[in-house]
Design a protein that fits this description.
By secondary structure, this protein is α/β, with parallel strands linked by helices. Helix content is 38%, strand content 24%. β1 and β2 form a beta hairpin. α1 packs across α2 and α2 crosses α3.
Length: 318
């Protein structure tokens, strides 16, 4: 048994297909298949159920793949520790970030990362939070930006910043005719457009609904913040948006009104960088986290908006 064969097994577990696993390992399919068979012979149990259309791991195969993944991750950590002892600020970092944060945060922080660590290769992986957390635990990510709270004794959590939410309403909406602030109580009985299941922002928005008495507009669920933004512009409903998602250079439709909450306990999300406590990159990741903490305060203030004209006649849309 050698490390190469363990990597082949992990690839097969990930891809569930001999051809794709072989391509990911840069070997031919017969080579990968032969080595998996040798591994099975050595362990004395079948690891794979081979069918014409797909590959499934046996229970022993799933157990072996899980252990192999840990071994491969530890070896990679060993290599990384040795390399960083020579040049702590170079090499590759695999950083996970979730979709409702990545496009809006990264333009504000990547330039400072490039300036501070010019030799660093930063690989950004955008996935939903549960996928990022799983990959982080498995060693497939070095760190991830996630929303708190998260409880895992194996992970170090470095708080970065708290991001308020704002309410986005169509310009025809009654709330658009008032000032730029509102209270949580004014959300009572409002029907909010939300993201589909799997997005942490959906869970956060549902918490706001429960606290304020707002409801979900359940007949529509969006796949992205941009879809939510366009639905509000089309007067379909109202939604919560993270403040970074409405800051320049993000373009917002002119017929949307953004309202901030005047309550001291207004809705927000707390963002942290997480990494394994056993990581050989701990000191470097602390330096990287400091760059994310150093965002300008102006990014957490609602940008100026043009006044909304009062409706010419008739009732405003509800």
């Amino acid at each position: 048994m050698n490390l190469r064969d363990l990597k082949y097994l992990v690839a097969l577990a990930d891809h569930k297909h001999f051809g794709r696993a072989a391509a990911a390992c840069f070997v031919s399919q017969p080579t990968l298949s032969t080595q998996i068979k040798k591994l099975e012979d050595e362990l004395g149990v079948p690891l794979v159920e081979r069918t014409p259309r797909k590959v499934m791991l046996t229970p022993a195969g799933r157990e072996a793949a899980s252990r192999a993944r840990g071994i491969v991750a530890e070896v990679e950590q060993m290599k990384e520790a040795a390399r960083r002892s020579q040049d702590p600020e170079a090499g590759t970092v695999r950083l996970g970030i979730f979709p409702t944060l990545g496009p809006y945060l990264l333009p504000h922080v990547i330039p400072s990362i490039r300036a501070r660590f010019p030799q660093l290769e930063l690989l950004l992986i955008e996935e939903k939070s549960d996928v990022l957390l799983s990959r982080l635990r498995e060693g497939r990510l070095d760190a991830a930006l996630l929303a708190l709270p998260l409880h895992d004794d194996q992970l170090h959590s470095e708080f970065l910043f708290e991001e308020p939410f704002v309410l986005a309403v169509p310009e025809q909406h009654p709330l658009a005719q008032r000032g730029d602030t509102l209270s949580m109580s004014e959300l009572h009985q409002q029907r909010l457009l939300l993201l589909e299941d799997g997005h942490c922002l959906r869970d956060q928005a549902l918490d706001v609904c429960h606290l304020s008495g707002a409801l979900e507009k359940a007949e529509f669920q969006a796949t992205s913040l941009e879809t939510l933004r366009q639905m509000v512009a089309a007067n379909v409903g109202v939604t919560l948006l993270p403040l970074l998602a409405v800051q320049p250079p993000v373009a917002s439709p002119s017929n949307i009104r953004l309202l901030r909450f005047d309550d001291a306990s207004g809705p927000s999300r707390r963002i942290a960088m997480l990494w394994r406590r056993s990581s050989a990159m701990n000191d470097f990741l602390e330096q990287l986290a400091r760059l994310f903490k150093a965002l300008p305060e102006a990014l957490f203030v609602l940008p100026p908006q043009a006044p909304v004209a009062a409706p010419a006649s008739g009732k405003a849309a509800a």
